[in-house]
Design goal:
heterodimer, B: mainly alpha, about 65% helix
Chain lengths: ~200, ~260
């Protein structure tokens, strides 16, 4: 088969696919139709096969164990809070200590305390980030519950919660990532605490 | 009471290196310009995440347009070597080379994954190919000014060809690396399938580009949308090798009819 005949066959199939997709209202405009006509082997599987049905959020949540994972992550964040409540991590005390050393002219000791202050600040920053992310994940969870209820009341046809579930899953994965190194690089490489368990037992 | 898993005894209060940046939160892959922005900012993540995306027609549309515009821009800059219809011709043909090659290679990749015992999903594999090609096309678009500058500053035909090859090589390398990293994270024995897919893509792409040539028109040749077939790429390499040794298959290079 020569190139011209092959091209004609390709375009003929493209025309057929485009007409079929347009009749089934799968294309949303001329751009869609044009792309489908020209690149049907690449675009066709996504347009003609249609979008997957939105998954039932409650089933997804149960399958992925997101609520249980959120609880586990929450426990880890609480544990980090306890660490930061210890006297060694008290920022005003460290700053006062630094001022004492500076008043006595002990520059090396003062520099050591300054390094500790910077470490404490980084830990506090990391804790604030974790709290914010956890709060956002909880809000997403609440939103998902509301939308699930709305979906149930409306007969499941008006609300697509799959994107919300995807976003929630992403947030929880992000929290997992943050908690892989809760000290933000403060621990020496290879120490057992450097790699805290990413996911709690659920 | 919560078990304290954070033992503070080993904390080193003397940081010896710059603090690691916190891992960024995962966000869903988006369509349209937002998707292109995600692809440019975090290419490997995007290529991998797009392949896992389930409701992806908007993402595919954005990726197709990115290839058409990015590779089209580079094609136009190549075609500018001889201003006129060659600009439009190259701007259309270069994206076609990439997309038609992907249309052939992606199903082959799916088949290879299936043959090697991995789970096969053609839509995910198409997304993987399209993301990689979009990235390549955007790099090509970024390199288009290099070719443009060369052409406008009076590069010879062969110097222009070399500049085009260098730019395409650089863009292809970026795309290949992103593809390799994303494919290696797919479940199952994906390494052999990815290697095979890269090989198929290289062979098919080379032949496709050969079939749709010229992209940079020879200075004395008449304008033509497609040059006559003259065999395949491998055959042409053999002919060129013989020509380099002084064994020419024709008496002179083709001249335009007017000369």
């Amino acid at each position: 088969m020569r190139g011209l005949e092959l091209s004609a066959l390709y375009l003929l199939v493209g025309l057929g696919v485009t007409i079929a997709a347009s009749l089934q209202a799968r294309t949303s405009g001329w751009l869609d139709a044009g792309l489908l006509f020209a690149f049907w082997p690449l675009y066709g599987p996504f347009l003609v096969a249609g979008r997957p049905q939105p998954a039932q959020p409650s089933a997804l949540l149960m399958a992925d164990g997101i609520p249980a994972r959120l609880e586990g992550l929450s426990a880890k964040v609480s544990a980090l809070d306890q660490v930061l409540a210890q006297p060694d991590f008290h920022l005003p005390a460290a700053e006062a200590r630094k001022a004492e050393h500076e008043a006595k002219g002990e520059t090396r000791a003062s520099a050591r305390v300054q390094a500790r202050i910077e470490s404490i600040l980084r830990l506090q920053e990391r804790r604030a980030q974790l709290h914010e992310n956890l709060a956002e994940a909880r809000e997403l969870m609440a939103q998902l519950r509301v939308q699930t209820e709305l979906m149930r009341v409306s007969g499941g046809s008006e609300v697509d919660t799959s994107a919300l579930v995807l976003e929630l899953e992403s947030r929880v994965q992000g929290l997992d990532g943050l908690l892989e190194d809760p000290y933000g690089g403060l621990l020496p490489q290879g120490s057992p605490q450097a790699a805290a368990p990413a996911s709690p037992p659920v | 009471m919560t078990e304290n898993i954070f033992d503070t005894a080993s904390i080193d209060f003397e940081p010896k290196r710059a603090p690691k940046s916190a891992p960024r939160l995962e966000e869903p892959v988006r369509g349209g310009l937002e998707g292109i922005d995600q692809l440019l900012r975090r290419p490997v993540w995007f290529v991998e995440a797009a392949a896992r995306h389930t409701a992806a027609d908007q993402v595919v549309r954005a990726l197709l347009l990115a290839v058409l515009l990015g590779a089209g821009l580079f094609g136009a800059s190549m075609g500018l070597f001889r201003p006129g219809p060659q600009i439009l011709s190259s701007a259309i043909k270069l994206p076609l080379v990439l997309l038609l090659t992907a249309a052939i290679s992606a199903p082959a990749y799916t088949a290879a994954r299936w043959a090697f015992g991995a789970s096969a999903d053609m839509r995910q594999d198409i997304l993987l190919f399209l993301s990689t090609l979009s990235l390549t096309s955007l790099v090509l678009a970024a390199l288009a000014p290099v070719v443009l500058l060369g052409v406008l500053s009076g590069f010879s035909y062969h110097a222009t060809i070399l500049a085009v090859v260098a730019c395409c090589g650089a863009a292809g390398l970026v795309g290949l690396l992103a593809f390799a990293r994303a494919a290696s994270r797919q479940p199952g024995p994906s390494k052999r399938a990815a290697l095979l897919a890269a090989l198929i893509f290289a062979v098919v792409g080379t032949q496709m580009a050969w079939t749709l040539r010229p992209f940079v028109a020879r200075p004395r040749a008449p304008f033509e949308v497609l040059r006559s077939m003259e065999g395949g790429f491998i055959e042409a390499v053999g002919t060129s090798a013989r020509s380099a040794q002084g064994d020419y298959s024709r008496q002179q290079a083709p001249l335009p009819e007017s000369e």
